[in-house]
Amino acid sequence: MILVIDVGNTNVKFGIVKDRELLSTFKMATDRGKTVDEYWFFLEVLGKRLDIEMSSMERVVICSVVPTLDPVFSSLSQRYFGKPALFVEPGIKTGLTILTENPREVGADIVAGSVGVIAFYSVPAIIISFGTATVLAGITAKKELLGVAIAPGLISSAEALFQHTSKLPRVDLKDPGIYLGRNSSESLQSGFYFGFLGLVHYLIAGIKNEMKEESLTIIATGGLCSLISRAIPEISITDQYLNMKGLAVIHEKNLENR
């Protein structure tokens, strides 16, 4: 078994994987102030609940978009698991060809998700990650990452507005059922929800046009994928744990580098 860790700006997601099968997942809010010992305590408690000895993990595999936490999880792996962590970073084997101008700029989460799509679904594909940011990536039939589009996330956009307006109330982000709200809450929900759907629809159409593929699999992932994907008919697959599955495959490809 291996421990996979997806370190995001909003949440850190942990998964226990055996033979590519995700046995259990759990997450906690991303806290840049937590120590190595605090993260280990969290893992140890969860391991006891699952009747799994955490320290027996064969390897720790990590994709991270929070550089300040990389040394913390690196120390966690070395101190409590007795082995160095495998980070998704330039130089490791992924089976993915990155065609951007500077492949080193591509986020580790995008790489992990792309590897997951290639291994578990079908390409060509468009991956849409609904998280702190909204990220769309195009993968060709030749397992090439063509490029990426990055837009604000739904929640982060709402928070930015709430923080800079005194009178607008905080609202639940959901489908209000109408476009012209009859009160402040409905008006905000309409603008956020339908405006966000419009953004995603437009980006999907543009990416399809650029990729010039006859058939594309469109896959949604990320913390908000369940809320948004059901309103976008182009999305055929929703997989909240796509990055973790990709990390399991990356582990296999790098076994000789243990």
Architecture overview:
The chain has 258 residues and is of the alpha/beta class. The mean pLDDT is 92. Strands 6-9-8-7-10-11 form a six-stranded mixed beta sheet, with helices on both faces. It folds into two domains: 2-90 and 247-257, ATPase, nucleotide binding domain (Nucleotidyltransferase, domain 5); 122-238, Nucleotidyltransferase, domain 5. The chain has helices spanning 36-50, 70-80, 108-120, 154-164, 184-211, 225-229, 242-253; strands at residues 2-7, 11-18, 21-29, 59-64, 86-87, 97-98, 125-130, 133-139, 144-152, 217-221, 237-238.
Name of the top-level CATH class of the largest domain: Alpha Beta
Instruction: Please indicate the count of domains.
Output: 2
User: What is the level-2 CATH architecture name of the largest domain?
Assistant: 2-Layer Sandwich
Low-confidence stretches: none
Instruction: Return the CATH topology of the largest domain.
Output: Nucleotidyltransferase, domain 5
- CATH homology superfamily name of the largest domain: ATPase, nucleotide binding domain
> From N to C, what is the helix and strand string?
EEEHEHEEHEEEHHEHEH
Number of helices: 7
Count of strand segments: 11
Mean pLDDT across the residues is 92
